[in-house]
Amino acid sequence: MAEKDFLITLVAFYGPENAGVRYLSSALKKAGFKTEIIFFKDWKNNNLKPHSLKEEDLLLGRLRDTRPSLVGLSLISSFFELAGDLTPKFKALGLQVVWGGIHPTAFPEDCLKTADFVCLGEGEATLVELAQTLSQGRDPGSIRGLALNQDAKPKINPMRELIAELDSLELPDLNADNKFLIEDDKITPGEPILSGAEYRIYLSRGCPFSCSYCYNSILKQKYRGLGRYYRYRSVEHGLKELDLAKKLMPGLRRIKIDDDTAFCYGKAWLEEFVLKYPQRIGLPLECLLPPALLSEKLLEQLKGAGLVKVQIGIESGSQRSSREDYGRAAGNHKILQFSAWNQRLKLETVYDFIIDNPLSSWEDKKADIEFLLKLDRPFKVYLYSLVHFPGTVLSQRLLEDGKIKPSDLENASHKAWSQFRVDFSYPRPKDEIFYLSLLTLTSKDFIPKSWIRGWLNNPWLKKHPWPVLQLAKAANLIKMLGVAGEMWQNGELTWFKIKQYGNLKKMISQ
Ligand code: SF4
User: Fold this and answer.
1) Domains assigned to the chain
2) DSSP letters of 142-161?
3) Are 203 and 232 spatial neighbours (Cβ–Cβ below 8 Å)?
4) At what angle do helices 362-374 and 430-442 cross, to 10 degrees?
5) How far is the CA of 10 from the centre of ligand 1 (A)?
6) Can you say how many angstroms the Cα of residue 131 is from the centroid of all Cα atoms in its chain?
7) Centroid of ligand 1 to alpha carbon of 326 (angstroms)
């Protein structure tokens, strides 16, 4: 079959912002294939609902009408059961199905019980070779980076080398004419992110760090000996993508560099970026910065280029928990320095924190609150509930120590559906509610820090957290209304954002 007649439909679950499928689509198109991307369900923080029968019919109907030669599912562990439920239905239509993503890369044998093929690791080259092989009627059995069933047994081929030059990748596919979003019992054609006010870009792949709870702890092992793990794009390649986003997004107001470790790319890269970004793009910029990288000079340079908001991972205020549980490089002293510098720089600041760690003692929790109380306000705290992704170093350890059961792993529990960003509605013991309430209050400028310190050491409140909880909920509501007001003023309060965050019952804590 000619490439142009070979259609590959990529399906992304609960993630209209999924950049991975857009990269895959571009690579396939460059090789001459036709692609479609179906975003199956929207992401609504802590409130992911199973799809309806109507939505499933719409998905199956589209596949029946277009009859792709290959269907690719992009998934993390949270959607393992969903992929397992839908794949036999795709196969019943006579379609071949390939799975890719972190979970299939970590557990290919398991996935091959359902999928025809599993793409291991970075998918661009593997998927193109698979499409070429199938379109020419050849045997895909020896494709590197592919796992498949052969003679009724799983065959896991060696991983490919990591892509050495990220600039060799095509820009992500942002075309509107091959995208669909299935949500609210409707199928809507068009590229869903183009109506947003924010564009998220990734400038690197891999990570120089090795946090124990992160998917990078899985991929680093898989890719050992197969090239440099942490790579980044050139400034020019990144700016070309932003030029495209600016052209295609009429309501674009802000750029977010969504790499966990933005600007770990060296001095020359930074200098080129701060020179070119304001001239070429000139939009307010937001990024995540690793604590180890923080320096006053870097922040000044970035602010001069348009940086308005930084997100910094603290994850834990306890040195013990940071090092022993999370395997994080010591960096909290840099955050204290940042807080002092920021009195002058006045960058909007978000600190990321992880809670619900079964290894965390009351002393660790107290250290979390005491650390946040040392930081100058204003700031926001994004609280994340620890998700036990199977295969990470931390999940392995928790399983071995009997702190979690296999049913707590994300492929079985899909906790992230209801508790990814933390909210108060999730069931927790009283001392956890007390801890969460105090954590939430640390970022509320109108609550004196001395009150929080006093409550922290009050054993009665720890057993009876109701009054602190009510105060935390009320304070959080006030803060969230303020955030919504600011976004509205800046023209960033889009319908897309309201759907993701606007739920009074499951309002996330900041
Ligand atoms: S810094 Fe972020 S991306 Fe890197 S290993 Fe840690 S959690 Fe993962």
Assistant:
1) 3-168 (3.40.50.280), 196-427 (3.20.20.70)
2) G-TTEEEEETTEEEEPPPPP
3) yes
4) 10
5) 27
6) 28
7) 10
| 143: Cα within 13 Å, side-chain hemisphere | 26
Let me know: does 472 contact 424? Beta carbons within 8 Å.
Answer: yes
The residues, any chain, with a CB within 8 Å of residue 205's CB and separated by 6 or more, are 122, 162, 163, 166, 230, 231, 232
Over pLDDT 70: what percentage of the chain? 97
From the list 317, 333, 335, the residue with the least C-alpha distance to 325 is: 317
Angle at 375 (CA atoms; ends 369, 378), nearest 5 degrees? 105
- Where would I find the beta strands (DSSP E) of 140-216? 146-150, 153-156, 179-183, 186-189, 198-201, 204-205
Residue ID of nearest Cα to ligand 1 atom 8: 214
User: What is the position in ligand 1's atom list of the atom closest to the CA of 213?
Assistant: 7
DSSP of 227-287: S-S-EE--HHHHHHHHHHHHHH-TT--EEEE--TTTT-S-HHHHHHHHHHHHHHT-S-EEE
pLDDT, position 504:
64
Phi, psi of 171, deg, nearest 5: -65, 150
Asked if 64 and 164 count as a contact pair (C-beta separation under 8 A), the reply is no
- Average per-residue pLDDT for the chain: 95
The token duo for 184 is 């609210």
Per-residue pLDDT tens digits for 173-227 = 999 999 999 999 999 999 999 999 999 999 999 999 999 999 998 999 999 999 9
Burial class of residue 439, CB neighbours in 10 A (0-12, 13-18, 19+)? buried
Tokens 């007001």 correspond to 485
* Residue spans of beta strands (DSSP E) within 32-145: 34-40, 70-74, 97-100, 117-119
Strand order in the sheet with 7-13: 153-156, 146-150, 117-119, 97-100, 70-74, 7-13, 34-40, 179-183, 186-189
**CB-based pocket (< 6 A), ligand 1:** 207, 209-211, 214, 216, 260-261, 290
Ligand 1 geometric centre to CA of 209 (Å): 6
